[in-house]
Specification:
Strand 2 and strand 3 form a beta hairpin. The chain starts with 9 loop residues before the first helix and ends with a helix. The strands form six sheets. It has a seven-stranded parallel beta sheet with strand order 7-8-6-9-10-13-14, with helices on both faces. It has a four-stranded antiparallel beta sheet with strand order 2-3-1-4. The chain has a four-stranded mixed beta sheet with strand order 5-16-17-15. 23% of the residues lie in helices and 16% in strands. The chain is globular. The chain is an alpha/beta fold.
Length: 570
């Protein structure tokens, strides 16, 4: 996937950050690793093997078959590779020497950083007049809900979603105090599986809460809050409503403030979702540090000489990320969790990826060029059992940035498209983006609202009702498409689920949820001509994309565009 997450403008993002030099890279034995046990091996034998190799077990997850291990043995990873009882190892924490400073992942595609920065000081929109029908902001900005028929006269009238259906947001957190989130937020079940890493997240002492272990009710990035609102902002006469405004949101945070997602928090969040009865999980990210994970059987190669470019330890790490993520998805799916993921913003046919120049992206500054193949996986999007979603603009055209491919895309959904010339009358305006809740503290931090609380950019909107004001931002990406599908999946569980005798509420087999999601999607043919020329919107020719397949299933749309009304039998 393309790097998704966002926050500061580029100049702010890089201030105070010093890239780690090649000479200061940690050795293979430094730091902490997640060590996967081989299938069928007893935990006792695996622990003994780790100890023989000079590893100290810090904790163990028997359900997923791995241990967190500390070691100072420089030959530890080589020993794991040669072990018959250990399947592999992946870095959990790397000792790094760079100066701490906030270092977010790329965000240009999603947050439109240059346009948004240039717009500062322009009049924003505040205090919208009440709408005749629906939520106040719906008519002007929520083209996305109209596209998928999630409106008061359509799916809301048939099935707005039941509170007993739990949706897990595996992201950067959720601002539980946001007025258009709070009514549907479950604080009791919410968890944060991350700890801030000062190298990339900034110094904890300089944050408003001064905590490295953030509460499960905050979002210091804004990405997770936006995603959560698309799924389930309530119908309350304020701002907007989500696809499933009656379901319950649970924060299962796995992303750093800076937008990096590392292996252990993601698999911990997946397992937790299965343990507590979460029904649907949104995953708008890829697991760092590798955009594409290529195991030892099909390693990434050097673009010049064609030889493997990753070390044996790096190949093992990538295979371990693939394997442990698959174990976690299998564990949770067996307990009724439907996983839905963003396809990614790399404008790539995931059935034929060819190049990766962003990996490894942690520690920052260690990336290099890699030639990859279809044997290399974008995790968790390409993990078996995850439903992958492509992004569309207001005209229904595939957004230029969106990944695609029949091997991966199950359905498509609105994600926003700022550059869309394909039938959209208002291209290059905020109205072509996706509206979602925005934490006020972040809007203030980046001077996007003034001292009186009025927006200073057209990409930020304020709405007030009954003495309560809330803020919203307009952004785009496959990260924004995925939660539309998650909301429809939550409606499907609300409509057809059966009582969950273990956790309460409702439950439904993930395979059945996927089947209804695909079968009720609005079929959409490939464009004509099938080779879409994105150079006419200012992109390089390498962004041009060919759509193969028929009306019922193709590279751009999968089985079609999610349809909330049809999904609930309307």
């Amino acid at each position: 996937m393309q790097r998704y997450l966002l926050l500061a403008v580029a100049a702010l993002a890089l201030s105070g950050f010093v890239v780690q030099s090649a000479a200061s890279k940690p050795s293979a034995g430094d730091g902490i690793h997640l060590v996967a046990y081989a299938e069928g091996v007893s935990a006792r034998d695996a622990r003994a093997a780790i100890e023989r190799l000079g590893g100290t077990i810090l904790n163990e997850n028997r359900a997923l078959g791995y241990a967190k291990v500390s070691t100072e043995n420089p030959g530890f990873l080589a020993g794991v590779r040669g072990s018959s009882v250990l399947a592999g190892a992946a870095r959990d924490r790397v000792i790094a020497t760079a100066e701490p400073g906030y270092r977010p992942k790329d965000f240009d595609i999603e947050r439109l950083a240059a346009e948004r920065q240039a717009s500062l000081g322009q009049p924003g929109v505040a205090d919208v007049a009440p709408a005749a029908t629906g939520e106040p902001l719906a008519e002007r900005w929520q083209w996305d809900m109209r596209m998928i028929h999630a409106t008061p006269g359509e799916s809301y009238a048939v099935e707005p979603g039941k509170p007993g259906v739990l949706v897990g947001i595996m992201d950067t957190g959720i601002d539980a105090a946001h007025p258009d989130i709070a009514p549907n937020f479950n604080a009791r079940l919410s968890r944060n599986f991350t700890t801030d890493i000062e190298l990339i997240d900034g110094k904890c002492a300089q944050e408003p809460d001064k905590l490295c272990s953030d509460l499960a009710t905050v979002d210091e990035n804004s990405h997770g809050t936006h995603v959560a609102g698309t799924v389930a902002s309530p119908i309350n006469g304020l701002g907007m409503a989500g696809v499933a405004p009656g379901v319950t949101l649970v924060n299962i945070r796995a992303g750093q403030d800076s937008g990096f997602f590392f292996l252990e928090p993601t698999i911990q969040a997946m397992k937790y979702a299965g343990d507590v009865g979460i029904d649907v999980v949104n995953m708008s990210f890829y697991t760092d540090p590798w955009l594409y994970n290529c195991g030892p059987d099909h390693p990434a190669t050097d673009p010049v000489i064609g030889e493997p470019v990753d070390s044996p330890e790096q190949q093992m790490e990538q295979q371990t990320i693939i394997d442990l993520t698959q174990r976690a998805v299998d564990y949770a799916r067996a307990r009724g969790v439907t996983f839905i993921g963003a396809a990614g913003n790399s404008h790539t046919n995931l059935g034929n990826p060819t190049f990766d120049d962003t990996s490894p992206d942690y520690p920052p500054g260690t990336e290099y060029d890699r030639v990859v193949t279809n044997f290399c996986l974008d995790v968790p999007t390409e993990t078996e059992g995850v439903i992958s979603i492509s992004a569309l603009g207001p005209s229904g055209a595939k957004a230029d940035y969106s990944n695609y491919g029949r091997e991966q895309i199950v359905v498509s959904a609105p994600g926003g498209y700022f550059r869309d010339f394909f039938g959209t009358p208002q291209f290059r305006t905020p109205e072509t983006q996706i509206l979602g809740p925005y934490p006020e503290a972040i809007a203030r931090e980046f001077h996007e609202i003034d001292g009186s609380g009025r927006p200073r950019t057209p990409f930020v909107v304020r709405d007030c009702a009954n003495g309560v004001c809330a803020y919203y931002q307009l952004i785009q990406g496959t990260s924004m498409a995925s939660p539309h599908a998650v909301g429809v999946a939550a409606l499907i569980v609300s409509s057809y689920g059966v009582p969950d005798t273990l956790h309460g509420g409702l439950t439904m087999a993930p395979a059945s949820v996927e089947s209804v999601l695909a079968d009720t999607a609005s079929k959409h043919a490939c464009p004509e001509p099938r080779l879409v020329d994105y150079t006419i919107v200012g992109r390089p020719a390498s962004w041009n994309a060919f759509c193969g397949g028929g009306v019922g299933f193709n590279d751009f749309y999968g089985h079609g565009i999610v349809n909330a009304l049809k999904a609930v039998g309307g």
